Amino acid sequence: MSFKSKGDQSSGSSVSKKWTFLLCLGCFCAGMLFTNRVGTVPQSKGIMRATAMEAEKLKLISESCNLKVKEEKHVSKDIMGEVFKTHHVIHTLDKTISNLEMELAAARAAQESLLDGSPLSTDVNRAESSRKRRYLMVIGINTAFSSRKRRDSVRATWLPQGEKRKKLEDEKGIIVRFVIGHSATTGGILDRAIEAENQKHGDLLRLQDHVEGYLELSAKTKIYFATAVALWDADFYVKVDDDVHVNIATLGETLVRHRKKPRVYIGCMKSGPVLSQKGVRYHEPEHWKFGEAGNKYFRHATGQLYAISKDLASYISINQHVLHKYANEDVSLGSWFIGLDVEHIDDRRLCCGTPPDCEWKAQAGNACVASFDWSCSGICKSADRIKEVHRRCGEGENALWSATF
């Protein structure tokens, strides 16, 4: 009995130890498992939190960078805008200074002429009062001593007379004068006849320093522009021949379109042949300057009618003593602008033909500025025919007085 009970105790103790060992092992494993789960999950969550925080930081940094880039672009645009504005202001000031310099030089030239005792024209006494206002244009009608009938035909057609001419100046800002110099015999019968004519009509501009002559047209053109720019402050200065029909309102409307442009030269641009053969009309004595025989002139406005802006007229006035004169005055004028930044405007309405050409164009709503016959370099027999041209191609008196420039 005693031995048996010992065996039973021994067996129970053995079982108890095994179970104890297994229980301990299970607890150990459970503890390890629990420890791994508890340690791993918070670590993963911590990494996720860190990743989220870093992403948020990166997002903030990216947004900050983008904001800086946008600000830099905006600042860059602002800087470019300011640079452009500054450049524009400098360019405008440069043009203004250039114009003032030319006006000052022209005024000095006029003053020197007066101090020398040679008045520029019979309009000098009115020069000071005229300078108080700005005119649209000055139209100089080139004429000669022998052209009294032509002048009277122009007065009877497209050039207003008396109070209407004064109204044209005061209300429309348009000055129109026949331009003529003096005879070779100062104070002779030709000069006295012109003075009497001027007393009657008051529409002549006398060029005191010019002696009339066909071969002196280039010199006359220079003196005309120098005189006109000294007497009247205008946007444009026009030269037209006394055998050409002109629609003044249409001319004004044409010039107004170019009023804001600097240095404009308007006319029917051409490039005729350089004639080297002596004895022919329009012979060019200096033909060798234009290259080989058969060459053509540079582009220039035909001489029947052309217009230049004030800055170009001032340029001629300032430099008249060094500007070269060719045989043909329209070629001379074109040569004076070579090398300058001048805009050549080719407008074919300034050189229409006589009826039916100008009449058809007027009926089509495209009224001509000037009409003449190319074969005669003016209206053929203009003293007799200009009235017919005016009747068929004229714009009508109401067009002039209703026009706004």
Keywords:
405 residues, alpha/beta, two-stranded antiparallel sheet, 14% strand, elongated, DUF4094, golgi apparatus, Hexosyltransferase, membrane, EC 2.4.1.-
Describe this structure as you would to a colleague.
The termini are far apart. This protein is 53% helix and 14% strand. The strands form 2 sheets. Strands 3-2-1-4-7-6-8 form a 7-stranded mixed β-sheet, with helices on both faces. A two-stranded antiparallel ribbon has the order 5-9. Helix 3 packs parallel to helix 11 (382-393), helix 6 crosses helix 8 and helix 6 packs across helix 9 (329-336). It has 405 residues and is of the alpha/beta class. Residues 1-11, 38-44 and 113-122 have low confidence and may be disordered. It is built from 12 helices and 9 strands. It has helices at residues 2-115, 127-130, 148-155, 163-172, 189-201, 217-231, 248-256, 310-319, 329-336, 357-363, 382-393, 397-402; strands spanning 135-142, 174-182, 204-211, 234-241, 245-246, 264-270, 300-309, 343-346, 370-371. Strand 2 (174-182), helix 5 (189-201) and strand 3 (204-211) form a beta-alpha-beta unit. It is elongated. The longest helix has 114 residues, at 2-115.
